[in-house]
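#lab-general

N.A. 3:47 PM
ok so I finally got the sequence cleaned up, no stray characters, all 367 residues accounted for. can someone with queue access submit it? mine expired

B.Y. 3:52 PM
send it over

N.A. 3:53 PM
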Amino acid sequence: MTAPQATVRPLALPADRRVLVISDIHGNLPFLQGLLKKAGYSSDDVLIILGDILEKSTGGLDTLHYLMDLARRNTVYFLQGNCEDVTLSFLRQAWSEEAALQYGTFWGEKCAWVYMAHQAGVDTRTPQDLAAARQAIERAFPEEVAFLRAMPTILKNDHYLFVHGGVPREDRLEDLTARSCMKNDDFLSQGYGFRRWVIVGHWPVTLYRPDIPSAKPLLLPDRHIASIDGGCNLKADGQLNALILPKEPGGAFRWQSYDGFPVMTALEDQAPSPDPLNIRWGHSALEVLSLGEEFSRCRHLESGRELDILTDYLRQGDGGTYCLDSTDYRLPVQAGERLAIVRRTSRGALAKKDGATGWYLGKLGPA
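B.Y. 4:20 PM
back already:
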């Protein structure tokens, strides 16, 4: 089967309206609603959704319905992400039945097409179920499927190019495959620079930093790239970001985020760590030196560093022991500052400040 080509559409952005760009919601409707409220979103604004509304949670269909309804009343533009393509690839049988079954079994109802099939009363346990599942989804969710199929791959104007994952160039975009634009892993490390600002999601920005875990949008003015995936639903400390475009091209970007964590006030100063480590996906292999109830002493194999990891962050895989995203970073804090508290432990709080995650070992008070 021939891979679909990228669909490119022109985008006219009115100069008198604020433009918000959000990516990688992954079915977290409360985060989306919280972010829009925090950003003061209204019908006067233009909203661009960079893709990955679906997958990784059971809330994908509810989030899709919310955004479809929003688009009936407000100015909302959508791009297809690789997680929308999961459902569309299943429906057009782009995967083998074995591959589709393996994926659907692994994710269960956190996979959108599995969830929709079950909502339509069809099972997805065997290869023989899948043909019936496709028919049931097309029959029960025609509006939703048509909406997903209508999403373009790229939106562009003279100043901006919006794409879920990334592109290797600004011309001949229609010659690219849609999937290469959507599932473009580690885009910033590919060395590209552009004339337009290229706005992408897909790759959680914390994966780009080996030192400090940060989920805030990553802006590279010298290369005209903005990467905005805050790890919503994928990271224990993830957030949903809204990039706010400057009123005039060439102006300063602003951003807003929502993470749902409780906020407390720091009561003591704390100096930052001099040489922090950000253990992140793809770089998280460990040797456990001493297993503890709350913390375990571990050696990070890639760096050789020893540090304490939350024991319930430890995982076992085919390659051995690894962990969820972890750090030994101590946040720079002044008494009176407000921190978002990811979790409290006997040693202090794992907290967030300005999108960065780290430890705060001082006393906390109410916000």
